[in-house]
Amino acid sequence: MRPPYNHTMEIPATFFLVGIPGLQSLHFWLAISLSVMYTIALLGNTLVMTIIWVDSTLQEPMYRFLCILAAVDIVMASSVVPKMVSIFSSGDNSISFSACFTQMYFVHAATAVETGLLLAMAFDRYVAICKPLHYKRILTPQVMLGMSVVIIIRAVIFVTPLSWMVSHLPFYGSKVVLHSYCEHIAVAKLTCADPKPSCLYGLIASSIIVGSDVAFIAVSYNLILQAVFVLSSKNAQLKALSTRGSHMGVMALYYLPGMASVYVVWLGEDTVPLYTQVLLADLYLVIPPTLNPIIYGLRIKQIRERMWSMLMHCLFDHSNLGS
């Protein structure tokens, strides 16, 4: 039985993040791996954003959604990776109470926005392939703005109660978070009150958001595949399937580890090692921001050509200055 508590809470000055329990011997190599992935994520997403921003020919809805996705990926990775690297490399595992819940808010808000953007991009591809003659009439700037606002509002509505519920719980006992960042359930377990209401809210809300998004994405891609197989050209079919397959691969890397980390806590906490649970939660925050600019950016011909042009321009300008 947890002791009853009143509204006068003891607010801890700091929490202490363990990193990845059971894998402390690998922390140095994890720090190097994360540093490399974070560098790729920052450079890749910044490059994609810059190209789309400065190139007047890349102003279609698909590119604008991709630009927003790149910005969200930077926020998502930056919310957790610098602190993870600090923990793994130097052992600096302390994090203040306010910083912990700020990190929690941005992590969950970014993931909620990202899943909404993946749905919006799937809808964009559905309209482009299945209703090409009505593309500009359906996806107007006003519609795009409305979709973006709805995605952000939905994330705020989901995340704000979650963070409020956990931050207003009493923390009298251990301040050691068995995780590498301030993950919601890992922090909630430290409370002296019953954490089940906030944990149950997080489970239900994430299941509804991700479940509905995945269902609509699946419907969109099913309709896209039906339209693709109607194409007479085999090359067109293979090109469309290749692009869709890479996009679906990124979605699988994002959704599967994320949902697995949520449900393992409820269904397999005693059977799945803790380090596996933490790794799953870490992967879906680090791998998608690293791979998205490669999958969505380099595979799109216009962005790839613009990227190559900018690279050649920088190299030749540098060589000319040197000579």
TrEMBL record:
GO cellular component terms listed in the entry, alphabetical order: plasma membrane
Key word Disulfide bond present: no
Sequence ranges assigned to domain G-protein coupled receptors family 1 profile in this UniProt record: 44-296
Listed Pfam families: 7tm_4
Listed InterPro entries: GPCR_Rhodpsn, GPCR_Rhodpsn_7TM, Olfact_rcpt, OR51/52/56-like
Main location per the UniProt record: membrane
GO molecular function: G protein-coupled receptor activity; olfactory receptor activity
Membrane topology: Multi-pass membrane protein
Record keyword Cell membrane present: yes
TM region positions: 26-53, 65-85, 105-123, 143-166, 203-231, 252-268, 274-298
Family note: Belongs to the G-protein coupled receptor 1 family.
Name of the protein in its database record: Olfactory receptor
Organism: Equus caballus (Horse)
